[in-house]
Specification:
single chain; 257 residues; mainly beta; SH3 type barrels; twelve-stranded antiparallel β-sheet; five-stranded antiparallel β-sheet; 1 helix; elongated; signal; SH3 domain-containing protein; SH3-like_bac-type
């Protein structure tokens, strides 16, 4: 009788042992993590890159990780459950990238005086030409680029406009209104002719980075005219490039000394 009772006790212990081990085995703790992929990622119904896509998870989304299976994590997000690659998760909340706001240009486009600016093609669209920059004593806030005595151009800048004209004349190539805000429309008071006609032009960008032989320029102002031609202006340099309606370069700054 005692042997039978002992046998029954052993059988009972064997039956209870797996359940007891299961109960004492630590369960995977849920954790809050964040999507840290380069792009938005899909939640899938199985741990496989070819599994059905359930929903799209945006970068930086907060998710609840329920368990892990190899390289995959089983997660919950907004009532949806599924799998994503574990490498796309991070425990630390990532800092969202906020693009810098394009600057609003209100001054500073005058070229620096006492330097030589070489253009190829020249400002006339011809052969390579060097212009010497000097402050024009007769006009407030102006710098002249002279090819030789009495031959050249004059930039003028004030709180309302940025202008370029033929030196010692009343002829202006452009007179662009300030402020210049990216994706906005401004006026060119003298569009290629000597007149007071206002032409609407587009400030295509105030944050372009442009590389020429003269160097790399940041926060370049790109002005687009109705015919498709473009004017590229840089702080402390003035014109650094001009393109025609076909995108061909008709003037470009290639050297500054």
């Amino acid at each position: 009788m005692k042997k039978l009772s002992l046998f029954m006790l052993i059988i009972l212990l064997m039956l209870l042992m797996p359940f007891s081990l299961l109960q004492t085995q630590p369960a995977h703790a849920e954790s809050t993590q964040f999507i840290n992929a380069e792009e938005n990622t899909f939640l899938r119904d199985a741990p496989s890159p070819s599994a059905k896509k359930l929903t799209l998870l945006e970068k930086f989304s907060k998710v609840t990780v329920l368990s892990k299976e190899g390289q995959w994590s089983y997660i919950k997000h907004n009532g949806n459950k599924g799998y994503i690659l574990s490498k796309t998760l991070t425990k630390q909340e990532p800092k969202k990238y906020e693009p810098k706001k394009a600057p609003v240009i209100t001054n500073g486009l005058l070229p620096k005086a006492n330097r030589s600016y070489t253009y190829e093609p020249s400002l006339e669209g011809g052969a390579k030409t060097t212009y010497k920059a000097a402050v024009n004593p007769d006009i407030r806030n102006s710098v002249s680029l002279m090819e030789e005595e009495f031959i050249g151009y004059t930039y003028i800048e004030n709180e309302n406009s940025f202008e370029l004209g033929v030196a010692y004349s009343d002829v202006f190539f452009f007179s662009l209104s300030y402020p210049m805000k990216e994706k906005s429309t401004i006026y060119d008071t003298d569009y290629g002719i000597e007149s007071d006609t206002k032409t609407e032009v587009t400030v295509e960008s105030t944050s372009t980075t442009l590389k020429t032989k003269a160097g790399t320029f940041k926060n370049v102002v790109v002005i687009k005219y109705p015919n498709g031609s473009k004017l590229y202006l840089a702080k402390d340099y003035g014109i650094i490039r001009v393109t025609n309606f076909e995108g061909e370069i008709t003037t470009e700054l290639v050297s500054v000394k």
